[in-house]
Amino acid sequence: MTGPYPHPKTILPHAYPFLLIDRILDLDEGERIVCLKNVTINEEFFQGHFKDNPVMPGSLIIEAMAQTSGLMIMKEKSKIAYLGKIKDAKFRKMVVPGDQLIITSSLVDKFPPWYAFEVVASVANEIVSEAEITLSLSL
Amino acid sequence: MSDTIQKLKDLLITRLKLKVKADGIQEDTPLFGPNSLGLDSIDVLELIIGIKKTFGVEIPDKETAEKIFVTVGAIAQYIEEKR
């Protein structure tokens, strides 16, 4: 599939304030997907995480990774990919307002309904987080 | 064959974080169901990935998976055949 790619909200069932992907940047069908999340100060979670010290929660980086991976395997809104497993998650650097989070997810293997991905999130070409994520695609 | 079985047991214990020792897994211990190692369907994908990485053997389809993911012995036999 070549760009321009559809907007994530036309594929994912997620909506504000929980749609954590702004754009698909690249997609090799069934192999690899790259997505963008612009992290802005007006995100709801920055109001409390933390007060006077905005840091994107690691759990939401994982969620963005899951949404990125889901975009590769969800073809229509009737199918939903649920988190099945999170493995070897690491958070190396803090993600703060103004960062452009680039998330690259590669499909490792699948055994439907299970799909396993290796996911890396970077900001300015530096890895901020990585994890292995398994999704279950509902029928 | 015994080497394959030992590696498989290690793979099961480390990758699936089973709370058993290698000695507690026999060739004919069932993977699923009562008196088994207590695996579930999500573990199958983890096993498929582990077998590919450790032995370079692929499990091509669901039918094959259903046939071999019964006991450690059955998986070892399949690996030996395909290597």
TrEMBL record, chain A:
<dbReference type="GO" id="GO:0005737">
    <property type="term" value="C:cytoplasm"/>
</dbReference>
<dbReference type="InterPro" id="IPR029069">
    <property type="entry name" value="HotDog_dom_sf"/>
</dbReference>
<comment type="function">
    <text>Involved in unsaturated fatty acids biosynthesis. Catalyzes the dehydration of short chain beta-hydroxyacyl-ACPs and long chain saturated and unsaturated beta-hydroxyacyl-ACPs.</text>
</comment>
<dbReference type="GO" id="GO:0019171">
    <property type="term" value="F:(3R)-hydroxyacyl-[acyl-carrier-protein] dehydratase activity"/>
</dbReference>
<dbReference type="GO" id="GO:0006633">
    <property type="term" value="P:fatty acid biosynthetic process"/>
</dbReference>
<keyword id="KW-0456">Lyase</keyword>
<dbReference type="GO" id="GO:0016020">
    <property type="term" value="C:membrane"/>
</dbReference>
<keyword id="KW-0443">Lipid metabolism</keyword>
<keyword id="KW-0444">Lipid biosynthesis</keyword>
<keyword id="KW-0441">Lipid A biosynthesis</keyword>
<dbReference type="Pfam" id="PF07977">
    <property type="entry name" value="FabA"/>
</dbReference>
<dbReference type="InterPro" id="IPR013114">
    <property type="entry name" value="FabA_FabZ"/>
</dbReference>
<dbReference type="GO" id="GO:0009245">
    <property type="term" value="P:lipid A biosynthetic process"/>
</dbReference>
<protein>
    <recommendedName>
        <fullName>3-hydroxyacyl-[acyl-carrier-protein] dehydratase</fullName>
        <ecNumber>4.2.1.59</ecNumber>
    </recommendedName>
</protein>
<dbReference type="InterPro" id="IPR010084">
    <property type="entry name" value="FabZ"/>
</dbReference>
<keyword id="KW-0963">Cytoplasm</keyword>
Automatic annotation (TrEMBL), chain B:
<dbReference type="InterPro" id="IPR009081">
    <property type="entry name" value="PP-bd_ACP"/>
</dbReference>
<protein>
    <submittedName>
        <fullName>Phosphopantetheine-binding protein</fullName>
    </submittedName>
</protein>
<dbReference type="InterPro" id="IPR036736">
    <property type="entry name" value="ACP-like_sf"/>
</dbReference>
<dbReference type="Pfam" id="PF00550">
    <property type="entry name" value="PP-binding"/>
</dbReference>
<feature type="domain" description="Carrier">
    <location>
        <begin position="1"/>
        <end position="83"/>
    </location>
</feature>
